Amino acid sequence: MASTPEQNDTARLEAFSDGVFAIAITLLVLEIRLPGGNATLAQKLLATWPSYVGYVISFVTIGIMWANHHAIFRLIGRTTHGLIVGNLLLLLTVAFLPFPTTVLADHLRHGGGDQRTATVFYSATFIVIAIGFQLLWQVASYNNRLIAPGCEDAAAEVSRSYRYGIPAYTFTTIVAAFSVPTCLALVGAMALYWLIPRGRVR
Amino acid sequence: MASTPEQNDTARLEAFSDGVFAIAITLLVLEIRLPGGNATLAQKLLATWPSYVGYVISFVTIGIMWANHHAIFRLIGRTTHGLIVGNLLLLLTVAFLPFPTTVLADHLRHGGGDQRTATVFYSATFIVIAIGFQLLWQVASYNNRLIAPGCEDAAAEVSRSYRYGIPAYTFTTIVAAFSVPTCLALVGAMALYWLIPRGRVR
Amino acid sequence: MASTPEQNDTARLEAFSDGVFAIAITLLVLEIRLPGGNATLAQKLLATWPSYVGYVISFVTIGIMWANHHAIFRLIGRTTHGLIVGNLLLLLTVAFLPFPTTVLADHLRHGGGDQRTATVFYSATFIVIAIGFQLLWQVASYNNRLIAPGCEDAAAEVSRSYRYGIPAYTFTTIVAAFSVPTCLALVGAMALYWLIPRGRVR
Amino acid sequence: MASTPEQNDTARLEAFSDGVFAIAITLLVLEIRLPGGNATLAQKLLATWPSYVGYVISFVTIGIMWANHHAIFRLIGRTTHGLIVGNLLLLLTVAFLPFPTTVLADHLRHGGGDQRTATVFYSATFIVIAIGFQLLWQVASYNNRLIAPGCEDAAAEVSRSYRYGIPAYTFTTIVAAFSVPTCLALVGAMALYWLIPRGRVR
Prior knowledge:
The structure is a homotetramer. The first copy, chain A, is an all-alpha fold.
């Protein structure tokens, strides 16, 4: 019966999530601001490079998350209260990302402890997002409970690939405490790796 | 005939509402700002805790509202002018929430009367939103006028559960005048209660 | 053939427009800000009333525009380049509304010439939006060119009702130059009039 | 099989893109701000003209991009990882546009080198967006790999018309270094050209 939320209807859940992803990714630009002072505009535009770095990394990373979200919802056959809750908690972590991105951009220019703190904070946010994804995926895939018929194999593959997210970002966060550029290079490389074309995957 | 707004077509109304919910929930992050001053970044990030609290409570609450909106529109079979109006008034109250959330976060750190005022204002906004939901639901469910055939029982259940919203938030608002932490704990607990998994509900 | 934009496909045009309406309406809250100074929070919250007035009038008015947009697109059977252009110009005027709303709220508190200027500017924006609607509707309805078969009568009715928008807002704009409260009362009344339930319209 | 992202399903990709376009276009208004100082409001509203110019040009240009995006996705029959990546990179450039628009508006009023720098930066952003479109289109149209059956001719036509974007904006960027008004007139004219009604195109 079509009258309870315990139903096979992921369309509106996906539309809502698409909205949150799209807005979070587009809000990133609002945090790019020119520095004050007496330099020429050309100098200020160059000095804004940390904001560009943060914009690109965060944009690509949210884009990848959206693609992942899209991919796993293709495998999900029905909606439950638990799925709505898991999805909401994931969105809570994704929509938070513009804040650490600004914090990072604001402190990347200056060296010292605050730069490290900002990078740890930025990288740690990705751990929390990875936990959010893991949680959502557990809700959906445990015993293939919400997996659409015929998608069990693809679901198992997703489960395998999701093993690496939390450890990977935990590693980059530890690295951040020692070397800011190495941490950002790793996070950027993980995004780039995803971007490169790949052979036909099953 | 498909040419007047008095028609069975809730799809675009839901899409528009999804957009407003998604944007309101994502705008919350824009209101998180670091305090000024000479502290280290780590100290500032910790001192920002009231913004995190406000972000999480408001995010989860808007998410719950979205889920409720979603659930009741599953029961609604057709759109009327009155439904569009009721829905618009509800969205007016939901989209307002980022403002009291900022006010709360900005005043939570400091004690005294302003902290209480901010919490009363925040909690009172939920009363207004609950009134908005009640209004929308009355428009839709009065005499089952707009309820889809076969969904009457589910609609009656929604009517029962909606009885508690206005009194509950009226209570937390009164509590806020006496104890800010108790009010926030209650509002947070109401959100958490919704989040926990529940047995199979009909 | 499905390969040119000259096609019967208004779905994505409506989705894009829904997005712009939903964002413009939700951005309004970002412009509500507490005044500075030494007053208590309660006093500041009261002193913010012009922002609340602007928020409510603009929110309801954008909501009405959305509903109108929704209503006329129900009558439109196919998309042309001209329709996309007309729709874009309309959205350009709608998405501009948060700016005059802020200007109005910022100057309503203080009397004098600036208050009048702000109100004229605010009301004049509605003239421009009404022109945008008229333009879009002319593109769609001229010779019933894009009107879906069977919707000609409903289209004629829309054409009749659209006659009043531009003169009405021209009138309120002239009124604004003489009396700010009268102008706002009229604009608010026009929004309220739309909100009240109405008998069965054909 | 419906379980991998290598699938014929562009609907959610388009919905996400629509969201980003709609948000980027609507955020433009947030960057319009009155100058400070002691002038009357009427004088300030007039002095804000560079923001209006930037708003209109950027709004129309993003609108045209959306229409182009819409048009090419009508020809695309299936989604691949490469298409998602190409689309994401395009959105990255489009969502960036509010920043150069603000930079332009902030520096247009004052003459001198910064005005020129701002215009070069603004115009150069369009080169990057044109590259993004070219990239996306190459991914989709190379060997008609992702083109829907029967749309090959329309795709060839798009390929032809896309030849001019990068050179055209490279030209306006070079012009900007010599004459700011000429550059803006050209960019505006390119947008206007698109807006004018055209005869029946195949």
